Target: Thaumatin-like protein 1
Amino acid sequence: MAVAHLLLQLSAAGNAPRRNTMVPPAILLILQLLFTALGGAEGVASFRFTNACQHPVWVGTLHGATSPPLARSGFYLAPSATSRLDAPSSGSWSGTFWARTGCAVDAATGRFTCATADCGTGDVACEGRGPAPPVTLAEITLAAPGSGGQDFYDVSLVDGFNVPVRIAPSGGGGGDCRPAACAGDVNAMCPADLRVLAAASSSSSVVACKSACNAYGSARYCCTGQYGTPATCGPTSYSQVFKSACPAAYSYAYDDASSTFTCSGATGYDVTFCPGS
Model:
């Protein structure tokens, strides 16, 4: 970054002996603030969230067990609106993003609840709690800034589907760096035994589609027990429905070959809900 290079040069000049080139402290402070405003150290990532759906969503964020939380764990996003969160500036980071739908505050209890992907806190903030399935997940693991390592990211339907999602690197980057997405409407082709219908008794609209694991809990569908390895747990007729709608998304636990994406050096990631709208 040009500002960072200039800052280093001026700092060195201020410490050089026998030369009248010392930079006033006020100038250095201004440059440091400018450096921070423009993104700080190379490799620091930010996440930009866009709601391309025709309805509002309430974004949920969850950090990995060894990663610090982001500034917000949940927030409202109106149709066509965008919002940004910065990733931590040091160390690797992993986390998950999702959209909640049909959210409202119960007049009797004052609790905030959602029709899909509710995180169970009774509030807009998820506070370290994950979503209730079915839910479409955008998952990411960032390499530590300056390490030269790769970021890994994907869209997962292992816990079912509620809205289409895309996650894409931005701001440069090397390697493959393709978007990962589930842009198809799985709800429109969801098998009858996996459908989640709108709560209103007068409505039969499908608001989410369960995974077979969530619906039946069997080892075969959940890739657990004797089916807990890639060799013993392959696609099923249910997971193939998800795969046909979203070929680049995880349709079951060991669907790695076509569903894991990598990028190195990206300065940001765009997460878009309903990218095909």
In short: Helices lie at 2-15, 25-37, 212-216, 219-222, 237-245. The chain has five helices and 15 strands.
